[in-house]
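thread: overnight batch results

M.L. [08:02]
morning all. the overnight job finished for the chain we discussed friday. pasting input first so we're all looking at the same thing
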Amino acid sequence: MPNFVSDGHSLNYVVHGSGPPVVLLHGICVSFAGNFAAWGWIERLSAKGFQVIGLDFRGHGGSDKIHDASAYGTSKLAGDVVALLDHLAIDRAALVGYSLGSVIALRLLHDSPQRCGPSVLVATGDGLIGIPPYTIDEVATQLREALARPDFPADLPSHVAAYWTFATTVGGDREAALAAASASCPSCSTEAAAKIAVPVLVVSGECDPVLGRGPRLAQAIPHGRYVEIPGADHFMLARDASVQTAIAEFLAASM
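M.L. [08:03]
and the structure it wrote out:
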């Protein structure tokens, strides 16, 4: 993967194909490869004529691993995405954000609207606009408990313990993931969500124990649309070919 420098940190990215650009933003403790490339996202989006751009967030994948929480947070990660667009001389791109990536995508949609086309928030929920029980603070607290353990936290719920495994394998650095989970990621206000002007698809699993479901998140966005996948949990959406196809079709119809 090539790299560029943002805020003094070397970040890895990939670009596949040509056409209208779509930036894929992965979840915490994993990477672009582990969240997207391994499951066919590149091929399905490329088949619809999109240029697929993947970024490893700082602290993840092939990007620099920083163990200081002050280096992370919504504003820092969103800034890295804007820096990548600048590096690639892209004025505006669609975003597909998965889990943590959906938090960053939502921040970009209301803070940097001029850089964002129609976008998709996947494996996400109403907690992004502060509605319990799956608020960002509550989820981050659970992740920190798992990631602080030097050994696999077998006593924790399986969906929480899974992040320890992701961080030590796919993401590659448990301490960097812990720092990322300890950073500031404030909820988006409903007022800010109401100012988003582009179409946004919200995709949730019916049985997501991490971020729950997102119907009210979609309702808070003027041109929001909600799709719920029956029987799916937080992790299954990454490898669901029907989800990828629906997202590609939504973007193709919206851009």
